[in-house]
Amino acid sequence: MALANPDLSGSTAFITGTTRGIGKQLALALADHGCNVVSTGKTTDDDETELAGSIEQTAREVRERGPEALALELDLRDEDRVEAVVDEAIDYFGEIDIVINNASAIQLANIADLPADRFDLLTDVNVRGSHLVAHEFADHLAEQDGAWLLSNSPPITTDRSPGKAPYAWSKLGMSFITLSLAEELKSDDVGCNTFWPVTTIDTRASRYFGLGTEDDWRTPEVVSDAMLEILARDPAECTGNSFYDEALLREAGVTDFSEYNVTDGDPAPMSARMFDPEFEREV
């Protein structure tokens, strides 16, 4: 097994939702490979919350690894703030060549049970927020000598999702935006791809919403390792794809995923089957 070890020195990544969970792990994995990080999210050091993590804490941990980091408070529902934060990040670093739409709202519910304001939250944060970030960065990424826009969102494999339709709509919308941008920026050598975990990942949201038990979860490192496999490729050649983490890592030679498991259990492909009920693992 030889996992990708891309040299990202001199690169800068703008990541949404880096306070904790997958977003924070993506930031730290990038930093371990020399990449500067713009850490964004709603939770700051000044917030009174019992939850661990803040955008500044993630930035501090990035700096401890050597690269530079900038923490910027960001509510993806605020169009003016998105524009201001993107401008500030570009002004600070000069160039951003990796953009990752990771932040998401989640609520799994039947259509009859989900009020309009919760539907709006899912839509505004997930698909509209991803659009705003992509919109603000598109021209800048096109000017770089090979750049990336990645989305933590699933392959588009279904036209219905009973029991979770509003959430599914918003996550699939993230993918639709990303894959469409792949075509729009193809001539500019910008690699636009989505990545999605096969299993549920151990995050605050998974625990809060009771998405299985620890036996069903893997650690966020499985997602960050998969992301690095993408970034080790040529963005001019690797674009318009929806990747599963397991597929990327199997291609790299991983046959034993137990190091990513939270317990000694054998996690089922719950996350993949959330959007693709017929999903089966590669043999």
Question: Briefly, what is this?
Answer:
It is built from 9 helices and 9 strands.
Secondary structure elements and their pairing?
Elements: E1 12-16, H1 21-32, E2 36-41, H2 55-64, E3 69-73, H3 79-93, E4 98-101, H4 116-143, E5 147-152, H5 165-184, E6 190-196, E7 200-201, H6 204-208, E8 217-218, H7 221-231, E9 242-244, H8 245-251, H9 270-275
Parallel strand pairs: 1-2, 1-4, 2-3, 4-5, 5-6, 6-9, 7-8
Describe the structure.
- 40% of the residues lie in helices and 14% in strands.
- It is built from nine helices and nine strands.
- The chain has helices at 21-32, 55-64, 79-93, 116-143, 165-184, 204-208, 221-231, 245-251, 270-275; strands at residues 12-16, 36-41, 69-73, 98-101, 147-152, 190-196, 200-201, 217-218, 242-244.
- A seven-stranded parallel β-sheet has the order 3-2-1-4-5-6-9, with helices on both faces.
- The radius of gyration is 18 Å and the shape is globular.
- The model has no long low-confidence stretch (mean pLDDT 96).
Terminus-to-terminus distance: 17 Å
The parts where pLDDT drops under 50 for at least 5 residues are none
Into which percent range does the helicity of residues fall? 40-55%
Total number of distinct structural domains: 1
Total DSSP helices: 9
Largest beta-sheet details: 7 strands, parallel
CATH homologous superfamily heading: NAD(P)-binding Rossmann-like Domain
The CATH class designation is Alpha Beta
**What sort of overall outline do the alpha carbons produce when their principal axes are compared?**
globular
Side-by-side strand order of the widest sheet: 3-2-1-4-5-6-9
CATH domain topology:
Rossmann fold
Structural classification: alpha/beta
